[in-house]
Predict the structure.
Amino acid sequence: GWTPVGPLDGDSLAQYPQGAIAALGSALLRPLQAALLNFATPSPELNSRIADGLAMLQEILGVSIEGAALSWDWNHEDLAGSPVHLLVILAAILCVTVKRGWPKVGVTYTICLVTGYVLLPITVSYAVIPTSIRYQLTFLVGGSPLVGLALGRYLKPKALLVLAFFFMLAATPWVLFNKTRPVVAMRPDPGPGELPCLAGCTAVGSVFTSPKTDLLFANLRPRLEGYVGTTRSLREKSCRDVGLRIDSHDPEYALWYLLGAPQSGFHLETVYAVVDPNPLRDRDFKPCAIICTICGDRTRLHGLELYSAWQGTALFLGDGFTWYEDG
């Protein structure tokens, strides 16, 4: 079975120790560990101290879970924490909890919000690793109405306007200097309209001046040469039915863009999946080319011969396609 965050298997589900007390302690610690992802700092020493604090708490509770991994990358879309947002939402939750007289719908909404945030790290194994911090975005967005409800109760309209302006101003660095989609780039050798790496370099130049292909591969620079070289070779051939054998984290959409599919006439379909794809597989599809990023030193795949290999991206061509992998 499948869930919104991936396949329902042993790897995606959180594992718990034997014994009710140990399992309960681990379940209580995992939401705390997920929350700590938002408080990574530029100091490895301080990050280590935070991790040691969690380890000490584990020892007190007599449980053992994976250690806290704090990764500082303040403007990276996959790793940046949201400590201010989280603290403001927690303050709003505290207001609803300790003060009476809130609308019933507000109380119900708060309960649902907290329950959703807690259940994610309790049930999903990788919700406590740095790259999974993006799963908390739903909670941060969902907390906005609650914050608005709390602020509206305690602040006057003019104060609310000033506070809203402050928060918008505080968000400016993330809007301007996003690491992979910067408005203003920070580069080692800054060009016109760019800045030096004052707070870390951006992966690419400004979204207004950088080529679309560079922006497309901002997070996957090692794949750029292989994808571009492979699709260029394929464009030179008459073959338009293309099979894909790529890893789950490889950007399939980049291949569609580089080939101009489907408007250009290229027909792309996967011939490989981690789970059984038979219910969705079109057995009448007979590609004359396969793009593969996980084929190692193979020289033949599904009856097609190796034509080229660019930086880990292999292109197989031929007319003898078979669904048998080693055919």
In short: The mean pLDDT is 89. The CA atoms of residues 7 and 146 lie 32 Å apart.
